[in-house]
Specification:
By secondary structure, the chain is an alpha+beta fold. It folds into two domains: 79 residues, 434 Repressor (Amino-terminal Domain), CATH 1.10.260.40; 79 residues, Jelly Rolls (Sandwich). Helices cover 19% and strands 28% of the residues. The protein contains four helices and eleven strands. Strand 7 and strand 8 form a beta hairpin. Helix 1 crosses helix 3 and helix 2 crosses helix 4. The radius of gyration is 17 Å and the shape is globular. The two termini are 25 Å apart. GO terms for molecular function: DNA binding; DNA-binding transcription factor activity. Keywords: DNA-binding. This is Helix-turn-helix domain-containing protein.
Length: 203
């Protein structure tokens, strides 16, 4: 699987990808605040200089695993890449009005990240629209550190994870799992599904 997917690509079942979240801008701001060059960040993270440049300029969508490597290379918590500002806001409360989340979209999911105003959070809550209709649409499952909880708001999905049996979920069903397990979701009724998804960084 490539480290990045070009934004605006029309891969099968995908359509154009877009992002309001601007993770790339935050990565650049954190990097420059630390006085690091692209070459230095590439060496620290193991992500190629060309891939980093595309990510920082919002011309490519990084996988979750790549974001982990970049965060480690920058010496920051991964959740800080999902903050509203690169410098973040250290506080105790933040809110998001309906429809006011920060969106990122790829060929299989639309994620709307919620309550992004705080720095050094442990949890990343988001509402996900599942577009994928089959596990075959994924180049490979996700796998990364942390723990995750999901709750089906509408629609029907299948949760696929490694050697575990496929789990079918419908509105009102929920699931909690170790993020290190290979995992993906696709819809089972031919229509998009909506999930409340929460990822918590651990370790």
């Amino acid at each position: 699987m490539p480290d990045v997917v070009p934004l605006g690509s029309n891969a099968a079942a995908g359509g154009a990808e877009r992002s309001d979240l601007r993770i790339g801008q935050r990565i650049r701001a954190i990097r420059t605040d630390q006085g690091l060059t692209l070459d230095e960040t590439s060496r620290r993270s193991g992500v190629s200089k060309s891939a980093l440049s595309k990510i920082e300029n919002d011309r490519a969508s990084p996988t979750f695993e790549v974001l982990e490597r970049i965060a480690a290379g920058l010496g920051v918590a991964l959740v800080n890449l999902f903050s509203e500002q690169s410098t973040g806001h250290i506080g105790r409360l933040t809110s998001t009005p309906a429809g006011g989340g920060r969106r990122t979209e790829d060929r299989n999911y639309i994620h709307e990240f919620l309550c992004t105003g705080l720095k050094d959070r442990r949890m990343v809550p988001f509402v996900t629209t599942v577009k994928a209709r089959s596990a075959h649409q994924f180049e490979k499952p996700a796998s990364h550190k942390g723990e995750e909880f999901l709750y089906v708001l509408s629609g029907a999905v299948a949760f696929v994870s490694g050697s575990y049996a496929e789990i079918r979920l419908t509105a009102g069903d929920s699931l909690y799992f170790d993020s290190r397990l290979d995992h993906l979701c696709y819809t089972t009724d031919g229509a998009d599904a909506t999930l409340l998804w929460v990822w918590c960084e651990t370790g």
